[in-house]
Specification:
five-stranded mixed β-sheet; Carrier domain-containing protein; ANL_N_sf; Non-ribosomal Peptide Synthetase Peptidyl Carrier Protein, Chain A; PQQ_b-propeller_rpt; 21% helix; Rossmann fold; alpha+beta; 22 helices; PP-bd_ACP
């Protein structure tokens, strides 16, 4: 993804000035114990350069604590034009070893007592360790060289690989350039010029891009860097604030870089009179904090820098000081937040509409600041970097807007979460809570921290979403009780849609922070997932039991009974399950609207006084209570091979028949799509990583594979290699499985953004988009002889569209039906009917004119897609239900002809193993992981295999084998063996 055609501007790194006459006698580095001149620094660098050049490495990792040796190692790699990879030894050994491998590191500069070094000696071959004559106990380690580097690291402008936090999976390696780093530093020199006496505090970890400005921006200009204390991997501002302030004052530090979270802590100390510039970056700079900071250091200018590693740290800026900011500007900031200002020199920016008919706009960046790209992340490069009008642009993922020639940032679009279908900006929520806390504690000196997270929890196979806001405060001296929590929520909802929200107050010392001083959302997520059930048990009460069973609620808080199920995090799927549980357990008739509108107390009032025992069910688990009632088992199911993935598999396998081979293609929650040769013992042909998890099943046409992803993209992959051919961005998660319509030259796929997209098979260009009231989970269906496209949504909408009308950009449906519950089941078309499984518990047979011809009833929702058997004299349909029954119905009338109780809910769709004019054999799985073969002529199953894992994936039949994925991360091939002379 590097911009090979770009002309690299003259870089400050084309020459190292440390040996120049005007530099050599100056002080390069000051510590409380000693000074290092530029002459001495250059000597240390020369020693390191010779060692690196003799080793012949192209990529070197640096794992050193704050100190002179770290700075010398960094500068040596730069002068030698060797790509450097900073390593943080406060992180896990596993993470750091993974980074060494991912970055193709060929050597490591570290301390002799490094834990990472100790582990490398145990795991790598041909280790060579050389002591470095630069003090500090440093050494240089090399191992067997990587035979070939990827093109991105061979780029002559490649400078470093910096890794992101990995909050969405594995860390992403960003390859930065000399051009971009030079541009950033030269802009700062021009915009905020150094004076001869200026000194810069060394405070940022080398693994963060801001450290490059700190070190290189100062030294290449001949300024002095000030290091707080003895070598340590902990940033000084986190380690000892009082000591930092003392060093700043003693050495006359004039510039420092800090994240807002640490700035808030710094404000509790005395102000160092020497500070002239405070560079603030890495998090949202809240206006209340800016006000306090300007009063704390009235002589200083606070520079709000906006950017990320992908754009070399900073692409826009604004500056504020107490003497320059007006009351009108502060009033504007109270409404919109602190502006991120205007572009730095060399950067181009533009706002791009996030979705059609929406005012939301995403910030895109082009020009000198752009990194070369993500290392080993083809999917991320396609998703985040794009070519447009001859320019290469980076999509920041931030929603921004202009006000009076200043740019403002509303928050991350990729940290935007959906809570009960409502888009919530976590950054904006935190800003609102900061504002409330600032007003509440206006007359005190109390500190606080705020972290918002969106929590998704799987309960009863439902994904539930809740907004959780952690507030860290000194709980020993400050009380934030139920009344204050209610006030905070009222303040939040005055500007935000009301969504299920929990506020959790913890002591500020227990509030998790990252090593760079930012609030640690990943740790907050771990805290919420680890919370135990309250001493007030929910399961003692029947209504509370249902809430505990189906929703992410473990304890009673405040006016619990006044909440609706939606208030507690219930989505359409969860409410559907609760509705049918109430119908089943209490034998009363409620509607889905009751589930949405009634409070917990109102629901309880509707229940009969004589309640059935908690957890009882009308569904008899007959298979577990009695033995088989027929004779010999006719078939045997045997696992032939298993392929393990890193996370669960919910998608259904795709079998692709080659000339002499069968390939199985499937994606999983570990972000990978894999292609496996089905012939035992199985071998993986290719693996392609996408940016997020995959629940969508793959579709195939010619040499292309089509699949949806949680990152909102629909991807086209090359069947032979897995290479991404094109991708199309929707505005929300894609769980729907694509439908290929080769006769029309299109692929059709739904998105959770309430749309169905029809895309060109070869280019991925959007031909038309069909809007819906709800999200689209179900795969659409087509009836080509009538030129019809059928689609359904979680709002219960069922629409029929004519292709000819769609081709004329006419989204008006031919007909439309509104069902009583969401549709999650894929749509299926027979010769005469459209079949729709609905969460209201009915399978509908709908005529092509839009009339309900029949409906087959079950006692619980249907998520399983129906399967048609046309070969019989009277065609039939097989379908499963969450009531645990597999049913066989007449296709023309919907009359149920036979059924079998499999003892557990059925989410997956059945598959036909064999069929003939005389009968058929089908395969079906239960959620609890049991695979069955059933012939409807028999009253019970013909074969059974317990895979000992939850299953959402539907079985796929190919030859005499079944392929199925499980939630225990495994893809199985299962051989069907006949115990009698029965042809399969």
């Amino acid at each position: 993804m590097s911009d090979k055609t770009a002309v690299v501007d003259k870089s400050i790194f084309d020459h190292c000035p440390f040996g120049d006459a005007e530099y050599v006698s100056r002080i390069a580095i000051e510590t409380p114990l000693h000074h290092v001149s530029f002459r001495e620094l250059a000597a240390d660098m020369k020693c390191l350069q010779e060692t690196l050049q003799q080793a012949g490495v192209a990529v070197v990792a640096i794992s050193l604590p704050f100190g002179t040796v770290q700075i010398a190692a960094l500068c040596s790699a730069i002068v030698s034009r060797i790509v450097f990879v900073p390593i943080d030894e406060t992180q896990t050994i596993e993470r750091n070893e993974w980074m060494l491998q991912d970055a193709y590191a060929q050597g490591l500069i570290c301390l002799k007592d490094s834990e990472l070094l100790d582990n490398i000696q145990k795991t790598k071959d041909n280790i060579t360790i050389a002591n470095l004559d630069v003090g500090g106990g440093a050494c240089f380690v090399t191992w067997k060289l990587v035979p070939s580097l990827p093109p991105l690291l061979k780029d002559p402008d490649a400078m470093y690989v910096l890794y992101t936090s990995g909050s969405s999976g594995h860390p992403k390696g960003v390859v930065g350039s000399y051009r971009a780093t030079s541009n950033r530093i030269k802009w700062m020199w021009h915009a905020f010029p150094f004076k001869a006496v200026d000194k810069v505090l060394r405070s940022t970890k080398l693994t963060f891009v801001d450290s490059l400005w700190e070190i290189l921006g100062a030294l290449w200009h001949g300024q002095t860097l000030v290091i707080v204390g003895p070598p340590t991997f902990t940033p000084p501002l986190i380690g000892d604030l009082d000591k930092v302030v003392a060093v700043i004052e003693a050495h006359g530090v004039t510039r420092m870089t800090v994240v807002p979270s640490l700035l808030q802590m710094l404000l509790q100390t005395r102000v160092p009179a020497s500070i002239q510039f405070v560079l603030v970056s890495g998090e949202i700079f809240h206006v209340q904090l800016l006000r306090r900071a300007m009063r704390w250091a009235p002589q200083a200018t606070f520079i709000n820098l906006y950017g990320s590693t992908e754009v070399s740290g900073d692409v826009t800026f604004d500056a504020f000081s107490l003497s320059a900011v007006t009351s009108d500007q502060l009033s504007q900031m109270d409404k919109n937040g602190v502006p991120i200002g205007v572009p730095v020199e060399g950067a181009s920016i533009k706002l791009v509409q996030v979705e059609d008919m929406s005012p939301r706009q995403e910030l895109w960046v082009s020009g000198a600041p752009l990194a070369l790209g993500y290392l080993n992340r083809q999917g991320d490069n396609i998703a985040k970097f794009t070519e447009l009008e001859g320019k290469r642009w980076f999509k920041t993922g931030d929603e921004c807007f202009w006000r009076e020639n200043k740019l403002y940032c509303r928050g991350r679009t990729d940290s935007q979460v959906k809570i009960s279908g409502v888009s919530i900006h976590l950054d904006a929520v935190e800003r609102i809570f900061h504002t409330w806390l600032s007003k509440h504690f206006a007359s005190s000196s109390h500190q606080w921290r705020v972290g918002a997270i969106g929590v998704s929890t799987t309960k009863q196979w439902l994904q539930l979403d809740t907004l959780v806001v952690y507030v860290g405060i000194h709980t020993t001296s400050v009380v934030l009780g139920a009344d204050e929590t209610k006030q905070m929520l009222q303040f939040l909802f005055s500007s935000h849609a009301i969504v299920p929200t929990r506020v959790i107050v913890i002591d500020i010392h227990a509030f998790p922070m990252t090593s760079s001083g930012k609030r640690d959302r990943k740790a907050l997520e771990s805290m919420i997932s680890g919370q135990s059930v309250s001493s007030v048990s929910l399961v003692a009460d029947p209504v509370h039991h249902l809430i505990h069973e189906f929703l992410n609620v473990n304890h009673i808080e405040g006016d619990f009974e006044k909440n609706t199920l939606v208030d507690l995090g219930g989505n359409s799927l969860a409410l559907t399950m609760i509705l049918y549980a109430i119908r089943d357990r209490f034998k009363i008739s409620l509607t889905l609207s009751d589930m949405y509108e009634k409070t917990i107390a109102q629901l309880r009032d509707l229940l009969p006084s004589k309640k059935r025992s908690i957890g009882s069910s009308t569904m008899e688990n007959t298979l577990q209570k009695k033995s088989r009632i027929t004779g010999d088992i006719q078939y045997e199911l045997q696992v032939e091979w298993t392929v393990s993935m890193q996370k669960c598999i919910d998608a259904t396998p795709l079998a692709v028949q080659r000339a002499t081979e069968t390939w199985i293609v499937i994606g999983s929650h570990d972000h990978f799509v894999i292609c496996v040769d089905a012939a035992p013992p199985s071998r993986t042909l290719w693996r392609t990583e996408l940016p997020d998890r995959i629940e969508s099943s793959c579709a195939h046409h010619d040499n292309n594979i089509y699949v949806g992803c949680y990152d909102g993209y629909i991807y086209c992959l090359h069947l032979m290699t897995g290479e991404i051919r094109w991708s199309f961005l929707t505005q929300d998660q894609v769980k729907c499985s694509p439908l290929v319509v080769p006769e029309k030259g299109v692929v059709v796929c739904g998105s959770h953004d309430h749309s169905v997209y029809v895309l060109d098979l070869d280019s991925g260009c959007c031909i038309f988009r069909i809007p819906f009231e709800g999200s689209v989970f179900a795969t659409p269906a087509v009836r080509l002889s009538l030129d019809f496209l059928f689609c359904a949504s979680t709002a219960g909408e069922l629409q029929a569209h004519e292709w000819s009308s769609l081709a004329q950009n006419n989204n008006n449906s031919k007909w439309r039906i509104k069902l009583d519950a969401p549709v999650f089941s894929n749509l299926v078309v027979s010769e005469d009917l459209l079949l729709v499984g609905c969460a209201d518990g009915f399978l509908y047979g709908i005529s092509f004119e839009g009339r309900i011809a029949w409906k087959a009833s079950t006692s619980k929702p249907i998520f399983s897609s129906p399967c048609i058997v046309q070969s019989l004299k009277n065609p039939i349909v097989i379908f499963g239900s969450h009531d645990g029954h597999l049913r066989c119905a007449d296709l023309k009338t919907g009359l149920v002809l036979a059924s079998i109780d499999l003892g557990s809910a059925i989410f997956a769709s059945p598959a036909i193993v064999k069929s003939s004019a005389s009968g058929f054999l089908c395969a079906a799985c239960t959620v609890q992981g049991v695979l069955y073969l059933w012939d409807t002529k028999d009253s019970t199953w013909q074969a059974r295999l317990d895979l000992k894992a939850d299953i959402f994936s539907s079985p796929v039949v190919h030859g005499n084998c079944l392929y199925i994925g499980t939630r225990s991360n495994q893809l199985h091939r299962i051989k069907i063996k006949s115990n009698k002379q029965v042809a399969l």
